Give the backbone structure.
Amino acid sequence: MPELVCTRLLPFPRERVFAALSDLDQLLQWWGPDGFTGTSETFDFRPGGSWTMVMHGPDGTDYPNLYRFHVIEAPARVVLEHPDPAHWFELTIGYDEVPGGTELTWRQRFDAEEHFAQIKDFVAAANQQVLSRLEAVLAR
């Protein structure tokens, strides 16, 4: 399976970084690329739970999304799936305590090489934007 991996050193305690994903109010402030906002419909943050939300693009386009939580090991790791047949991926977010804060690893696996080839540059840039937005929320 093709995958994208990026890491970011965040100068915050691991529990604080993890809370930015597990707390819906914080999550909606950073989930999505620059210019996007989100509206949550359901949020059941537990293994077997799901999150339905709509990402609102800067051009006014709405993008319905469903995520399923498979693994939640607070505050170390979350594995979730985006089961959209047109854009399936599994995302593993790892939170490692390191000197100076938390090293966050964002590992996104895709099911089809052809689809991955078409989107990898866009998704790689979008992931960096998401992590920058996360860091800005944590710095408040």
About this structure: The first strand starts at residue 3 and ends at 10. Strands lie at 3-10, 37-43, 50-56, 62-73, 77-82, 89-98, 101-110. Residues 113-139 form the longest helix (27 residues).
